[in-house]
Design a protein that fits this description.
Elements (H helix, E strand, L loop, with lengths): L3 H10 L17 H10 L5 H8 L16 H6 L5 H9 L4 H22 L7 H4 L7 H7 L3 H9 L26 E6 L12 E6 L6 E3 L7 E6 L1 H8 L3 H13 L3 E6 L3 H5 L10 H14 L3 E5 L3 H13 L9 H6 L5
Parallel strand pairs: 1-2, 4-5, 5-6
Antiparallel strand pairs: 1-3
Helix pairs in contact: 5-8, 6-9
Length: 334
C-alpha cells in the first residue's frame, strides 16, 4: 500500500500532464484511461477535476483559467486576448520585462511546435488565436517580432524590421501615370478605382484583379465580401485550396482582400449557416499553414478595398514579402 507521506509528496509534484490520479494516486498507462477513471470511478467531470486539482491562472488578471476543453486548459495562459495586449503595454522592472520576454518567446515556440509550423505565424493568424499580435511583440522586444522569432529559432513568414536588415516600407500612395487593372468577367459587382486606374474586363483564370505591366509582378488579388469569405472557408475550402495550388504552380501570389474588419469575421455567426467565426478562422490558418503563396488582408469595407487594392499592386513583388495586415493596422495604407 502506498505510503501517505510518499503519496503526499508525489501529489505535490504532479503536473497537469501526469497520468496519475490526483485523488487516489493510481497510476494509469495513458491519459485516456485516467480520464475514464475520473469519470466513472471518481464521478467527476474533467472540468471539476482539473480546475480543483490543477488550477491555472490568467497571467494578467490572476483569475482562474476558464475550462473549455482539456487541450485548451493545459496550454492556456490567458482568458482573453486583450489581457495579452495589456500585459505587453504594462510597465515593470527589469525582472518583469525579462519574464515577459521569455513568456512571449515560449508562447511562440509552443504554437510552432504544437501545430508543426514551418514558419512563424503572421499577424492575421496571431490575432485569431490566444497569442500576442506582431504589435505586441514590437512593444516587448527592442527589434520587435523579428527578435522574438530569432529567440524562438523560427523564421518569420514575412519580412519585419531587424537591426541587420532595416528597410523602408515602399508604401507609395501615388500612381505614376495610369495603372490598368484587369477585372474578371465573373465579378458581378466589380470595384471602381480612382481616376489614375483604368479597368479592363477579361476572363481571368486565377483571381478577380490582376494589374497590367509595369505593375504586374505575379501578385494577384482575390476579393471577398464577408459572406463570400465565410462560404469559401467552409463549404468551398477544398476548391479554394486547389485554386491556390494552381496559382502556385504558375508562380502567382494571391492576396485575398476581405471587405470586412477582422473582428467581424472572428465573431461571425451565420443565421442559416453552421459556420462560426472560430471555425472559419481555423480554416484560414490551415490555408496559411499549407501554402506560402497566399495571405489575407481584412479591411473596413468595399470602399476601402477600392483604395487599397491598387496600393497592393504598387508594392509589386514586395507584397509577397510584407505582412499586409500588420502594415494595414499600423496605418501604412492610410
Amino acid at each position: 500500500m502506498r505510503s501517505l507521506t510518499l503519496w503526499g509528496y508525489q501529489r505535490m509534484r504532479l503536473s497537469i500532464t501526469s497520468d496519475i490520479c490526483a485523488i487516489c494516486g493510481e497510476d494509469f498507462e495513458s491519459q485516456k484511461k485516467l480520464l475514464h477513471h475520473i469519470r466513472f470511478k471518481e464521478k467527476l467531470s474533467q472540468q471539476k477535476y482539473f480546475t480543483e486539482h490543477f488550477p491555472r491562472y490568467d497571467l494578467y488578471s490572476a483569475d482562474l483559467i476558464d475550462f473549455k476543453n482539456l487541450e485548451q486548459y493545459k496550454t492556456a495562459r490567458f482568458n482573453r486576448r486583450d489581457h495579452i495586449s495589456r500585459l505587453a503595454k504594462k510597465s515593470g522592472d527589469e525582472d518583469f520585462q525579462k519574464w515577459r520576454r521569455e513568456l512571449f518567446v515560449d508562447l511562440l515556440k509552443e504554437r510552432v511546435e504544437r501545430k508543426n509550423l514551418s514558419v512563424a505565424p503572421c499577424d492575421v493568424e496571431l490575432r485569431t488565436i490566444m497569442m500576442p499580435s506582431v504589435s505586441d511583440y514590437d512593444r516587448v522586444f527592442d527589434s520587435g517580432y523579428w527578435e522574438a522569432c530569432q529567440r524562438a529559432e523560427i523564421n518569420p513568414r514575412f519580412k519585419y524590421y531587424s537591426p541587420d536588415l532595416p528597410f523602408d516600407i515602399p508604401m507609395s500612395k501615388e500612381i505614376k501615370g495610369v495603372m490598368t487593372i484587369c477585372v474578371d468577367t465573373r465579378e458581378q459587382k466589380p470595384l471602381s478605382f480612382g481616376p489614375s486606374v483604368n479597368t479592363r474586363s477579361l476572363a481571368l483564370d486565377w483571381a478577380d484583379y490582376i494589374p497590367e505591366k509595369p505593375y504586374f509582378a505575379n501578385v494577384v488579388v482575390e476579393r471577398k465580401s464577408l459572406p463570400d469569405f465565410v462560404n469559401t472557408m467552409s463549404g468551398g475550402i477544398e476548391r479554394f485550396k486547389k485554386e491556390i495550388e494552381r496559382a502556385n504552380a504558375v508562380g502567382l501570389y494571391v492576396v485575398v482582400v476581405v471587405e470586412s474588419p477582422l473582428y467581424k469575421a472572428k465573431q461571425y455567426r451565420g443565421r442559416f449557416s453552421q459556420a462560426k467565426g472560430a471555425h472559419i478562422m481555423h480554416r484560414m490558418r490551415s490555408v496559411l499553414a499549407q501554402f506560402n503563396n497566399v495571405q489575407f488582408l481584412f479591411v473596413r469595407n468595399r470602399e476601402e478595398a477600392q483604395e487599397i487594392i491598387p496600393r497592393v499592386f504598387l508594392l509589386k513583388a514586395d507584397a509577397k514579402k510584407l505582412d499586409l495586415q500588420y502594415l494595414y493596422r499600423n496605418g501604412s495604407f492610410s
